[in-house]
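Exercise: predict the fold of this chain.
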Amino acid sequence: MKYMKHLFKLALGLLAITVSTTLRGQIAVQEVTYKQVDTVRLKMKLYYPADYSSGKRYPAIVFFFGGGWMTGNIDQFKPQAEYLASKGMIAATAEYRIGKKHGTTPFESVKDGRSAIRYLRKNAEHLGIDTGRLAAGGGSAGGHVAASADLTAIDEETDDLSVNPRPNALVLFNPVFNNGPGNYGYDRLKNRYREISPFHNIRQGAAPTVVLLGTKDKLIPVAMAKQYQQNMQEVGGRCDLILYEGQEHGFFNYRPQKGLRYFRETLLAAEEFLTDLGYIVN
């Protein structure tokens, strides 16, 4: 019954999002350029709570889209960002360099992910962000970018390396976080996989993590996700693994034509995780 009440509350919240985005003066959206590499300008969209007050600091999260480090759209996580903004967070969605558009590799994608978090930290005062509550999230390759921002050391040389690029928490939707032999991405990374694979860089101090995964995902085996969780726990970290029976890769996306059950359920799970960490106050 408690779970059903939460689902009903979530449904009302999603309805409020639909209304708020059609009305002026509610959830505000700011677009910034957070990084420039040669002629490439990388954008970030920040979604602010309706009651945002200048001078206050708010918990924040930045989302990275999926697409195999090759394709993707900055607005993939717009619905999640709008919902979390309605809960009092500053929620951002960020571009990063991708293969088909920029001719880049996953290493550039991760560099950009870390640059995005550095941008939010460095500009936290005027953006209104509480740097002690700055999370990252993403789906598939975007989940990899978020996790790699925390666990690897792949940096843009032109970044201000004195600024911490690691998130304080991770919300990962079917992330491709093991890039070793036999797993997604190995064919592109080859003998450099250990540099960039979150699974192979788990260490003490890793950000608390929630992983949302379908049991029929052909890219991320459930057994591997359970091993990731165990490895996190062995170094004293938190990793909540939530499995969705019968669901395939990408099941969490906002797709009204296919139904919104799993979009809602995964968003509820993310909200509960962030609430438990003190990012959202009910």
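Check your answer against the key: The CA atoms of residues 62 and 136 lie 5 Å apart.
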